[in-house]
Amino acid sequence: MSAGTRTASATPGAAWTAGALRHVLGHLITPLLMCLGMGLAYLGAFHAPQPHDLRVDVVGSGPGAQVLAQTLHDKGAGALDIRTVPDRDEAVAALRDRSSFGAYLPGERPELLVASASSDTSAMAVEKVFTKVAAGQGAPLKVTDVAPVSEGDATGQGIFFLLVAVSIGSYASVAVIGGAGAVLPLRIRALLASGMSLVVSLIGTAFAGPVFHLVDRGLGGLWAMSWLYAAGILLIGVGLHTFLKRWTTLGMMVLFVMLNFTSSGGIYRPELQPGFFGSLHAFWNGAGFVEGLRGHVYFDGQGLGRNVIVLVAWLLVGVVTMAAAGRAEGVRRRAVAPGAVPDGEAASRKRAGAEAETEMEEAVAV
User: Does this model's pTM top 0.85?
Assistant: First the structure.
């Protein structure tokens, strides 16, 4: 009798253990895909930066400047796009409008002009090339930065790390609003998303200004672009949750981490990356944020309009995604039998499942 009792009591436990194991194994696909995606994205974008078609000017109109430019172009084998400009003022103008990343003035005292605010890594790549050129001429190279970053941004990559902070605040909020708030009407979730985008953008502005002094001017414009960027991510994410459910966090990381951070230009600009990431740089929202802020803060608004259009376009994608989610949820509600109310046990299971889903999404997001 006791043996039979032990067998009967052990069976449910074994079944529960097997069910829990299947549940865990089923969800392990998410971290495995994240590992694969992050490795492919980050290593593909950053593991071997090499210049290609990096625009550099040689200052001078005589035969010597022409010969030097042609020699560098031939030796570079496509790494550098060498052109000649007649004088220093035109070289500085090209650096200021970010159509060039360096300008070399040959002579007895050679000088290299760079604009580190447009990309510190690109400036370093150009400096490496022309240090060798000057050494071959037996002269030390003077480097002049015509557009330096602020004193609080020692690495020249502060805007990129601001992008990271605002992005994480945005897509982590999606896990909460989309998961825990899934029972709320869509208009309430939209309001929560809008509110969180405001909060996240204000936190980002505080980091950039009074907390870490990453920039020393233009905080109003920085806040506006931070809000546009965060609002786009939040609206897209909350809308996608209606369709993707527990896969939303993975989808958000693909869109706004794996493809976004790597193509933003915050570490390496497209001229130092494989072509795939360079093509994303033309229209992805992270690139719009980084390049827009650079233009706004350091280059008197150069390129700002185009990058703001990119951020607005992503915000409109978020609005369209929310509209599609509202339509889909309306169809689902109409498909439910009128007057059907789940009993207490079913409702409890539903709440527990939603809470477990939210906990998983938040853990993955962090």
Answer: yes
